[in-house]
Amino acid sequence: MNGKVLIVDDDPEIRNLISIYLENEGLEIIKASDALEALELLEVHNFDLIILDIMMPKMDGIEACMKIREERNMPIIMLSAKSEDIDKIQGLASGADDYLSKPFNPLELIARVKSQLRRYIKYNIETESNKSVINIGDLTINTDTRQVWIKNSEVRLTPKEFDILELLARNKGIVLSVEKIYEAVWKENFFKSDSAVMVHITKIRFKIEDDPKHPIYIKTVWGVGYKI
């Protein structure tokens, strides 16, 4: 599976154990030792799922979950040494999507993570299937927020890079000349000696392609231009 998961637990052994199992499933993992660190990471990363311990110093998982839910809707799976029904109810009421008591079976955790990720991705596809969201393979472009994701990981583009990518994506299958791209994006007359388009496309490829030298998204049509 693809996706980025944040593991929040003050026990390094548990963080590492969960990390090993989920990385073996192909997931990208980032770890936090407490809720405050997790909230800081959420400001710079886009996560697809959070595994959140309840009993932690500085700020417990219940309060952290409520803060996360003020702005974000990715799935949250809570972990706790408490197994009473009232504890599960409290965890779910704070905004968690699932609850697992410690000690837990790692295989059960993996199954629950996969289930939540499938549901989240399906929900996003259904709610974002509008003109402001362009999906091409693993590439997602949101023209309203001017954000780009590749394999569920956000890619940072400059304004000009985004404009070029959006132009090509909206004209999927159509070869656009360098002149047309330049005049559409820079909104000025094109000069044959200007290499701005080529330079920007090279930079975009390094950000969205697994192998920029053999791109699968932005293709060069020699002597004509570029297309997606």
Describe this structure in words.
By secondary structure, this protein is an alpha/beta fold. The chain contains eight helices and eleven strands. The protein has a five-stranded parallel β-sheet with strand order 2-1-3-4-5, sandwiched between helices. Strands 6-7-8-9 form a four-stranded antiparallel β-sheet, with helices on one face. The radius of gyration is 21 Å and the shape is elongated.
In short:
By secondary structure, this protein is an alpha/beta fold. It has helices spanning 12-23, 35-42, 61-69, 85-93, 106-127, 159-170, 178-186, 196-208, and strands at residues 4-8, 28-32, 49-53, 76-80, 98-101, 133-136, 139-142, 147-150, 153-155, 219-221, 225-227.
Characteristic terms for this protein:
228 residues; alpha/beta; five-stranded parallel beta sheet; four-stranded antiparallel beta sheet; 8 helices
Q: Write down the oligomeric state.
A: single chain
Provide mean pLDDT, rounded: 89
Strand arrangement across the biggest beta sheet:
2-1-3-4-5
Span from first to last CA? Answer: 25 Å
What pattern of helices and strands is seen along the backbone?
Answer: EHEHEHEHEHEEEEHHHEE
Strands, helices and their partners?
Layout: E1 4-8, H1 12-23, E2 28-32, H2 35-42, E3 49-53, H3 61-69, E4 76-80, H4 85-93, E5 98-101, H5 106-127, E6 133-136, E7 139-142, E8 147-150, E9 153-155, H6 159-170, H7 178-186, H8 196-208, E10 219-221, E11 225-227
Parallel strand pairs: 1-2, 1-3, 3-4, 4-5
Antiparallel strand pairs: 6-7, 7-8, 8-9, 10-11
Helix pairs in contact: 1-5, 6-7, 6-8
